[in-house]
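Students often ask why inverse folding is considered easier than folding. One informal answer: many sequences map to the same fold, so there is more than one right answer. In these notes we will look at a single instance of the problem. The structure comes first.
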C-alpha cells in the first residue's frame, strides 16, 4: 500500500480583483440522473510540547514569497513532509493560522500567515511514526491520523483545545477508532465524524463524535469501494471510487436515519457538493479513448452545465464565504483522459494551476500559477484548503509534501 497516499493554461489575473470578480460580483449532455454500534479504542490524555516560537523553515510567511518571484503571492510554509493542513482563526487579535501535521512523526505546528516574520509554534510533539493519511476537522481542533501497523490500517483521533492567540494550554486527547477504516469525513462544524468499515456484504457506515466516541451504525451498502464526504450538516455524499470506463454511482445519505438517495450514474464518476447542497460538481470518464468531462448540477433546477477547464472534484475546495464559489487545481498542460487514474497510482504527474469558478455566472479564472510570476515552484498539488475569510489558500505539493500558502488579497 502506498504510504504517502491512501486512496480509501493562461495568464494569472490580479488576485484581489479576480477573486471578487468570480465570487462576489454579481446546458450540456450529462450522465444519467437517478430517480428521484462499534467499540472505539482507549481514550488517553497527554500534555504535549510547549516549544512556543520554534523556528522551522519559515523565512517570512506574510512577506515576499519564500521561493520564486520576489513579491509573489505564493509563499512556502514548511519543507515537509506534511500529511495535512488547515486554517484556524483566532481573535484578540484576529489572526489567520495555518495548522499542519507532519507526515513522518505526527508533530503539529501553527504558523500565523498574516503576521510578517512569524515563526511556527509547536502545538504537539506526540509522536506517531509514518502517517499515511490525515485530515483536519473544521476549526483545526481534531485531526484523524491513519497509519499502517502490521498490515492493519490504524486510525487515531488527536483533539486539541479551541484555538486562541494567547492560549498556553497544550493538552491534547488521543483516542483510537476501530481498525480497518477505509474512509472518513468530518461534519461541516467539525464536531462529528463519519467513517466506513468493510463488511461481508460491502461497507457499513458509522457516525461518532469527532474523537470517535459515541459511535453508532448509520447504514449498510453492498459496495466496498467508496469515497465519503460530509458537505452539509444533515447529509453525507458518497460515490464509488472512480476509474475510467467503470460504471459508478453518486448518492446522498441522510445522517438522521441513514436513508440513501441515488443521485447520478456514470462511468468513471467522482463528485463534491457545496455546504448548502445547492450544487454538485462531478466529472465522468467514459473510457481511456474518450474525453473526461466535468459538470455542475444545480440541485434546484436539475440543470447540468459543463465546466470549461474540466476540474477534478477531489482536487477542489469550496469557498467558505460564497456558497457558489469553488477553488480547484488542474494541470496547466495537456493531461490524458486517464490522468487522474495514473495520478492516484503515482505514475502520472503534472504542474497545476489554481483556478476559481463561480457556479452562478459560470465564469472561471486562473488564481495563481506556482512557479510563475506568482512565486513558488511548479507543483503537482495534492490537496487544497481555504481560510475562513477567503484570504488565503494552503496547498501541499505532492512529491515532497512541502506546504505552501497563497495570498488571495480579498
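Output (designed amino acids):
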Amino acid at each position: 500500500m502506498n504510504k504517502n497516499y491512501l486512496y480509501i493554461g493562461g495568464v494569472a489575473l490580479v488576485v484581489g480583483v479576480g477573486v471578487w470578480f468570480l465570487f462576489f460580483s454579481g446546458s450540456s449532455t450529462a450522465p444519467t440522473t437517478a430517480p428521484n454500534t462499534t467499540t472505539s479504542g482507549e481514550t488517553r490524555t497527554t500534555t504535549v510540547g510547549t516549544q512556543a516560537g520554534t523556528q522551522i523553515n519559515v523565512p517570512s510567511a506574510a512577506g515576499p514569497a519564500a521561493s520564486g518571484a520576489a513579491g509573489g503571492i505564493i509563499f512556502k510554509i514548511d519543507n515537509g513532509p506534511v500529511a495535512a493542513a488547515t486554517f484556524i482563526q483566532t481573535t484578540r487579535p484576529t489572526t489567520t493560522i495555518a495548522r499542519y501535521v507532519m507526515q513522518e512523526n505526527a508533530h503539529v505546528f501553527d504558523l500565523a500567515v498574516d503576521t510578517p516574520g512569524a515563526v511556527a509554534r509547536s502545538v504537539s510533539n506526540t509522536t506517531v511514526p509514518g502517517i499515511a493519511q490525515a485530515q483536519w476537522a473544521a476549526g483545526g481542533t481534531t485531526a484523524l491520523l491513519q497509519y499502517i501497523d502490521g498490515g492493519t490500517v490504524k486510525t487515531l483521533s488527536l483533539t486539541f483545545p479551541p484555538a486562541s492567540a494567547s492560549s498556553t494550554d497544550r493538552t491534547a486527547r488521543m483516542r483510537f477508532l476501530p481498525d480497518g477504516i477505509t474512509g472518513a469525513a468530518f461534519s461541516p462544524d467539525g464536531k462529528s465524524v463519519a467513517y466506513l468499515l468493510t463488511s461481508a456484504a460491502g461497507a457499513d457506515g458509522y457516525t461518532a463524535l469527532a474523537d470517535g466516541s459515541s459511535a453508532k451504525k448509520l447504514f449498510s451498502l453492498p459496495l466496498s469501494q467508496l469515497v465519503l464526504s460530509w458537505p452539509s450538516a444533515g447529509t453525507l455524499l458518497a460515490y464509488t471510487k472512480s476509474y475510467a470506463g467503470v460504471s459508478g454511482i453518486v448518492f446522498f445519505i441522510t445522517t438522521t436515519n441513514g436513508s440513501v438517495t441515488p443521485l447520478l450514474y456514470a462511468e468513471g464518476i467522482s463528485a463534491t457538493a457545496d455546504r448548502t447542497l445547492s450544487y454538485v460538481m462531478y466529472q465522468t470518464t467514459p473510457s481511456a479513448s474518450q474525453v473526461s468531462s466535468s459538470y455542475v448540477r444545480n440541485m434546484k433546477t436539475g440543470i447540468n452545465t459543463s465546466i470549461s477547464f474540466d476540474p477534478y472534484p477531489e482536487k477542489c475546495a469550496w469557498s467558505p464565504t460564497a456558497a457558489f464559489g469553488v477553488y480547484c487545481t488542474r494541470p496547466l498542460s495537456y493531461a490524458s483522459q486517464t490522468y487522474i487514474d495514473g495520478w492516484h497510482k503515482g505514475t502520472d504527474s503534472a504542474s497545476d494551476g489554481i483556478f476559481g469558478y463561480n457556479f452562478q455566472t459560470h465564469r472561471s479564472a486562473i488564481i495563481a500559477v506556482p512557479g510563475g510570476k506568482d512565486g513558488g515552484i511548479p507543483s503537482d498539488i495534492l490537496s487544497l484548503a481555504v481560510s475562513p475569510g477567503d484570504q488565503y489558500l494552503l496547498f501541499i505539493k505532492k512529491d515532497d509534501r512541502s506546504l505552501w500558502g497563497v495570498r488571495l488579497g480579498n
